[in-house]
Amino acid sequence: MSSATSPARRPLRPSGKLLPEDARRHHRSLLLQLLFRYGPASRADLARSSGLTRVTVSDLVAELVAEELVTETTVTMSGRVGKPPVLVTLATGSRVIVAIDLSTDGLVQGAHVDLGGHVLTRHELPLDGRRGQGAVDVVHDLVRELVDSAPRPVLGIGVGSPGVVDAGGTVIDAPNFGWTDVALAADLRAAFDLPVFVANDANTAVLGEHTFGDTGDGGLMLLRVGTGVGAGLVLEGALLHGHRSAAGEIGHVVVDPDGQACACGRRGCLETVLSVPALRRQLEDGDVETVLADVGVRLGTVLAPVVGTLNLHELVLSGPADLLDGPLLAATDRTIRERTMPVSGDELVIRTSGLGEDGGDVVLVGAAVLVLAGQLGVS
What we know:
The protein is 39% helix and 21% strand. It has helices at residues 23-38, 43-50, 54-66, 133-148, 184-192, 201-212, 271-274, 276-284, 288-310, 321-324, 327-339, 342-345, 362-376, and strands at 41-42, 70-74, 86-90, 96-101, 107-114, 119-126, 154-161, 164-165, 171-174, 179-182, 196-200, 220-225, 229-235, 238-239, 314-318, 349-352.
């Protein structure tokens, strides 16, 4: 496989059993995954890498070319005799994905994202304090704008939402939006007649970081700081969902029983000191470096047992760079290393996300990964 024109991308470990009737879809996804990860390849290369017969590969490539999901290009190589090779390439510009990020304080953000994870155009709408059905209506309005203005056919809609989200795209509980059992995926699917995938925003972000970010080997935890606080984890190549899809709800771990009231109904949750609105309020009344460092110590205290228990290799903070990338990150790093064994902390990488300006595209790119995985079987 050639990797000259496209960097290798990191796949999620597959799960579940393959049924006989899914064989063709599986074979299509296998070829698309190879092209997605490694870049252009000949049909012979694809047959060798996939283990499929050349006849099967040729048939599937012809089908994908007809659908404009891949292209074929003849490559002229100087000094080489014989028939020039024909390379198959994923047509990353053939479709767009409508990606929605609901984690940003006071805004609903959206974008057109191509199949290569590139954010093409951005749109946003203010929430203006709306919650409940009012917030759902804003999401519909933004999706409609993006669908109507899409420059190419829309492959699907991906949404990263705060709160606990089940496998079917129902938001079971999102206190900051006042949502309980909101069937967001089903509502959007009915409204736009397109495939829709909804997941927790931190899980969505960690998918974006794992697939398109600068990640290494080992366990990855991404902490998403926005309207709320949540974490997504990829362990041994698989996204961790947990019981009732609630893995990563670290924002509602109590750090101060006498602290501020939280939207979840308790007091002193991590979210009451680390969310973007909470950080902005604290900075109004205190020295910037002192406030951010104090919050970083609290965060490091909460995360140290997680790092030690899971033996994580990377911890990525995602949110406004002016708040996270500085005293807060440094204090978090220092506190975790002080509270864990050297075997856990020596090779631990603690950083902010590099996807987009100040890492601001990580949820949007992750929302696109939801659609890529659901529709094309690639990640």
